[in-house]
Sequence to fold (95 residues):
Amino acid sequence: MGNVNKLISELVRAANHVEHLADVERKELFSQTVVVVRHMRQSIGVLSEPDDADKIVELLSVVAQMGAMAETPDDVRDALLTAAGMLRELHITVD
Fold:
């Protein structure tokens, strides 16, 4: 779970320095977050059915998409902090 804490830290750090964050870096952070959330949910037995999309992963994917496509630093910052919060809450649930 140390990787989860590291990713949360990276998301918050990126949000604090969003003006210096390259598009590739922010897209990678959001991609990593989606992958980690899926993995964590599977590890606790919350599986997604193909016909019934997992709402948390779907929501995180929307946040990631918004963050990756955001044009203003404030929008990117909001998406990064939302993703970090979602990841943190899931991490608490897993523990």
About this structure: Residues 73-94 form the longest helix (22 residues). The chain is about 75% helix and 0% strand. The two ends are 9 Å apart (CA to CA). The chain has a mean pLDDT of 79.
